[in-house]
Design a protein that fits this description.
This protein is an alpha+beta fold. The protein is built from 6 helices and 11 strands. Strand 6 and strand 7 form a beta hairpin. Helix 1 crosses helix 3 and helix 2 packs across helix 3.
Length: 211
């Protein structure tokens, strides 16, 4: 793996440590952290600070009904969630989002494929497969888009992104990502709003592809 040069912003790491990121973005951040020692160290620092703040926070009295509800949950049978390890190019958080299954690729045209891992009113997270030399249609954004490279690389107006790199795009960026020569580019992408495509055909197909 080449050196990772595009990292998670500090404010986003802090939000992730506090549990304040939407699920789609949390999957991408967790995946990047699993691949990036630099961001693992930074996340551990945020978690340590959060723990220290909790230790210093004054306690509050709670109602009897709330205590009974909490204790009832603690007494309930514990059913552990399955733990998914990294599999090939897919980090553990991606395997968890996929429930351990293989990618279910759906064609978007021109060799580009996607697998939607989850989608709700708060956003979506998907895998994207882009053949070497193929471009994603020119687009801008109605919100935030996080794109993590799992295989290959792509380039756009802001630079080149290789394995482990994270691109963060907002409403100020209009770009045309192009997969670089070599391996097909496989990315994990999360958005909290629909993209804004410039060309007519992608706009017409957008509701079908849910992107």
């Amino acid at each position: 793996m080449s050196a990772i040069t595009h990292h998670i912003p500090d404010a986003m790491l802090a939000a992730y440590a506090a549990g304040n990121l939407p699920h789609a973005f949390a999957v991408v951040v967790a995946s990047h952290v699993s691949m990036c020692e630099h961001c693992r160290v930074a996340l551990a620092a945020h978690q340590a600070v959060g723990g220290a703040v909790l230790d210093e926070t004054p306690t509050e009295r709670v109602s009897t009904s709330l205590k009974e509800s909490v204790f009832a949950r603690l007494d309930a049978p514990f059913v552990p969630e399955p733990v998914f390890d990294r599999n090939g190019i897919y980090p553990g958080p991606v395997m968890e989002a996929k429930k351990g299954r293989a990618p279910l690729w759906k064609t978007l045209g021109m060799g580009v494929r996607q697998d939607i891992l989850s989608a709700d009113k708060n956003g979506s997270v998907r895998l994207l497969y882009i053949p070497p030399g193929q471009a994603v249609p020119d687009h801008s954004h109605n919100g935030l888009e996080l794109t993590l490279v799992l295989q290959g690389s792509f380039s756009d107006e802001t630079g080149r992104f290789g394995v482990g790199d994270l691109e963060i795009a907002d409403e100020h960026l209009e770009h045309t990502p192009i997969a670089d020569p070599g391996d097909a580019c496989i990315c994990l992408a999360a958005t909290d709003a629909r993209l804004r495509f410039r060309a007519l055909v992608p706009r017409l197909l957008q509701p079908l592809f849910r992107i």
